[in-house]
Specification:
Blueprint: H1 8-25, E1 38-44, H2 53-67, E2 77-81, E3 93-100, E4 119-124, E5 127-135, H3 136-147, H4 152-176, H5 193-207
Parallel strand pairs: 1-2, 1-3, 3-5
Antiparallel strand pairs: 4-5
Helix pairs in contact: 2-4, 3-4, 3-5, 4-5
Bound molecules: zinc ion.
Zinc ion binds at residues 4, 169, 173, 181, 189.
């Protein structure tokens, strides 16, 4: 189950996190930027390991390319890890993606989680802010039954695809400045594990190939 806008308290906490994020670690200025380019900057838990990044960015790019005709996303964008940003590096516009918890580990110890969203954005002063949150621990537990029997690389690819689709769903809210949903596809109000990774699972079984896998 996925809900884009969490409870009010969660939203308040998220907003405070966003404000802290902006004040403490705004990564780039407009100086020297590419006016037409949007930077999608990913922040992750310090323990998240390198192998997730290539599959995650591959999946993200492939999903946007596949859906561009249908979804209103910028034509020019760049995916960047916050840790690789250089001083003075700038872009015309920045969308930040905060990955909460271990996004590189699909099989995580089960812990009871209260009902809540897999991803969300924050509306402040009437505007949907350019900050996306993805709860990776919740995603891992949500996908758990669907990823049993997959090897480590395959599970990582499943996490990468799920995270990408959740983040893109939220990014569309930002770009359209709308909380509108659709009855089918990535813009559904709730994305099932089937919506998130079933085509990838089918690829594993059907042709033993992992799109974006390493
Ligand atoms: Zn939504």
């Amino acid at each position: 189950m996925k809900f884009c806008f969490g409870p009010a308290v969660l939203r308040l906490i998220s907003l405070l996190l966003v404000v802290a994020l902006v004040l403490c670690s705004r990564p780039a200025s407009a100086q020297g930027s590419s006016p037409a380019e949007t930077a999608v900057v990913f922040y992750a838990d310090a323990h998240v390991t390198d192998p997730i990044w290539a599959p995650l960015f591959d999946e993200f790019q492939a999903e946007v390319n596949a859906e561009r005709q249908e979804y209103p996303l910028p034509e020019h964008f760049k995916l960047i890890r916050a840790t690789t940003l250089a001083t003075g590096q700038g872009f015309g516009r920045i969308v930040e993606v905060r990955l909460i918890g271990r996004c590189d580990v699909a099989e995580q110890a089960y812990r009871p989680l209260p009902h809540g969203p897999l991803g969300w954005v924050v509306r402040a002063s009437g505007e949907i802010q350019p900050f996306i949150f993805v709860d990776c621990a919740r995603v891992a537990q949500y996908l758990g039954p669907s990823t049993r029997g997959l090897n480590e690389n395959q599970r990582r690819a499943a996490m990468a695809r799920a995270i990408s689709r959740i983040a893109i769903h939220e990014w569309i809210h930002i770009e359209t400045q709308s909380d509108r949903h659709e009855s089918r596809g990535i813009r559904q109000p709730e994305l099932s594990s089937h919506d998130l990774i079933q085509d990838l699972i089918h690829d594993q079984i059907g042709v033993s190939r992992i799109p974006g896998g390493r």
